[in-house]
## 1
Amino acid sequence: MIVPIRVGDSAPIMQWRNEQTYHLRQDRVLTLVDQHRYFCEVLRPSFTDPKPSQLLFSYLVDGKCVGYGGLVHIAWPHRRAEISFLLATEIVGSRFVDEWVAYLGMIETLAFRNLGLHKIYTYAYDIRPELYPILDTAGFTEEARLRRHIAVGDQFVDVRIHAKVAS
Amino acid sequence: VSREAKPSTVSFDELGSNHLEVVRRWRNSPEVASFMYTDDHITEADQVLWFERVSVDPASRYWVVLLELQPVGLISLTNIDLTNRRCDWAIYLGEQTARGRGVASHAQYFGAIQCFDRLGLEKLCCEAFEFNSSAIELYEKLGFEREGLFADHYVKNGEFANVVVLGLHRSRWISVRAPFDQKYQIPASSRGTEK
């Protein structure tokens, strides 16, 4: 299940982010001070904003937080948002498919049914091909492949954007 | 009689506070606003705030396009990303008298020079509404290649509209630039890398 992101999950989330920078738009190692400031100054005010630019959630399995994500870059006038999701590093290898499938179902319901959005999309560095069949099965289609768009180390990689429009 | 503007009559001036009103007039005009992502009328105060923001933003550069020393349009490089070595651009001509005369093509060339030669970036990116076929055609003439189509991406005039996303890589630019270099006569000595 997903619940509004909890302050108590901020430390493990920071750790997962720092361990998985290879696929995140994050250019430095986060500290607890960074994380505390982000939760207090960015996330907390967004809870009372009727049109926040992002909605973040802790992702729980059997009551334990094993990931987080939500809708980011929400463009309310255009009724679309980008999907964000990060799994705990220790289960990425074993539960990637199962948790992504479950999470996509929840986030799609939230976006289309609860928020009335028209379109959701993913923005992924082209380094995790195991993601694409999951998106395909969930009814997403590839809208763009931005060639050599991101520098990873001394190489450039593509970005692949998959989207789903409300039916 | 050719209406094409002589390359020597086209020049570029860094955007300054003296240009704000003419740029605002263009940006609010139906001819320009109909191709923009936002429809809101821009007030004088909005424009001043916008200029205060972009004039100190190291990731943005704006130039006014001049034809025979008169301002006729705007070109910008934005989201200049030195980590991923790319930026976005946007171009429009606000004066009807400048359209259909090759001025936009010249401005595109200037933008590519700024991106690849001056800033030393690897990729120039842009987007356009799918219905803006003349702009897309112009981009493709310069060497841009389509990288995707964002369906129902913006609400424009009350309806969802598609957006075409395009990219121009340094390697492609090198292979196509010769005729543009010749036409617009930018001497090699002025193509030095800034960063």
## 2
Amino acid sequence: MPQETTPQEATPQGPPRQESPGPQAGHLRTVAVVIYATLLLLALAIPQSIVSWIGDMKSIEMQETLLPAAETLQRLSRQIGIDAPYTRARAAFLALTSKEDH
Amino acid sequence: MLFPTIEFAVFFAVVFPVTWFLNGFNTAKKWFLVAASYYFYAFWRAEFTLLLLASSLGNYLAALLIGRLADGYARRAVLWLAVAGNLGLLGYFKYYNFFAASLIDAFAAIGIALEIKFIEVALPIAISFLTFHALSYIIDVYRRVLAPTTSLVDILLYISFFPHLIAGPIVRADKFLAQTKKPCDPSDIKVGQSAFLILGGLFKKVIIANYLSTEFVDNVFRGPADYSSLDLLLGMYGYALQIYCDFSAYTDIAIGVANLLGYEFPQNFNYPYRAISVQDFWRRWHISLSSWLRDYLYIPLGGNRFGEWSTAKNIILTMLLGGLWHGASWNFLIWGLLHGLALVTERFFGVTGGSGAEHAPRSRAATALGWLITLQFVCVTWVFFRSPSIEASIDYFSTLLSGASWSTTLTPLAAGAFVLGALSQIIPPRWFQSLEESYEGASLPIKVLVPFAVIFVIAVAAPTGMAPFIYFQF
């Protein structure tokens, strides 16, 4: 029967994974940075999408908890002006295609 | 929970670090992934998680029993019970009303009024996919391709793993269970490939498939009689591009997401509209389904081992059932039947289109002709797949062939989506490969800026709202 394998058994040639972060851990760190930095940049560049998403939530408790944080993010984004490119680009796209955001 | 949504981004942002944090504790990681997958599934209908659980437990126990029994009647009986259980569940939820209505119609045609009660129950999402995953496990254990696992969590994870749960790809039990036995290796994450699969998938779904659907294809199929022949012709090709961009987007994202968690899924699409025969098309379209049908249906039926007539019968039966797998309607059966007949015809005329070494070389003209005929055939049969009924399909073709008018209602947005969809089949794969390689070798800021820029552009050009993925209904 297949048995569970310990991390050490799975990588018999290498040092134990948790004790010494080698190239594997470095690779994982890079992937993590790519994911979270991308999400953070998107949250800052398009904060209104998060505000609308929370606004659409069914749970009022969740809305009340999360909305202030999202609105703070939106204010911050506006103050630095990082949300402007999206707002302008979206408006231009909608004008060009004669569409409206519902 | 749809992939291209904020809730999925938040969900994944939690699942990713916890999964890798628990990687050294493989069993705990798998239980966590099971919990995450059930949470993912519960987003649609929480009560159907019980179905998922029951299916997993039933198949786990049946496989253990099959593994303990010696070859013979009892072992075969347990297999058939397990297969019947899986198919019974699928049949009850998906096909009961269809067969009941068909029986009533058939008896009405000979003047007998039959009374059968219809059931009013929602179709559990992904039931066709989870059934095929479960059958793959049970049959492989029966065939001794795979030893039954004593680890319940492995089976729970195999059947419910959220990247493939809703719309595939259909991952073979032996391939997946081999990956669950040990912790994942972070160096197996192909960051370039995963990034391009996810970003490309988002673009194909959110921009190409959505605009084709909402701006043009849905309207044309809703009332074909109100549209010109040109519109119907474009609608047919438009749907071919839409379904490709929609379905391949889902599985591309699934493959990319699974890889970010350290798991490998099989490729599901390979430029299907470049196929130069129908046989070639099925080697490029929904590869995980066509290979499943080949290994678990066509070959057990006898494959090509008992002469030409038997082979033809097996091909047609396989394609009929493959069609029916997509949905409980005569349209899917006709779609499957047409593909089956085309495969038999190709076999009869010795057409063995493909690019592999096993295929005889063809002249450029023969290749071009094969491609042209295959593309027209595939697009024509998509009309049956998309239309709500046989009558609607006939209406579609009769208006199309009437040649009444050649004006078009194609909007610029839909035309743009058309061009982009066509490019997805024209751009050589090596261009994507070199982009992935460049991305792999890029600096960290570039690695961040590329996905940010692509998603930013998608968000700017996205339609308001989102059409559901087509394959969710299957």
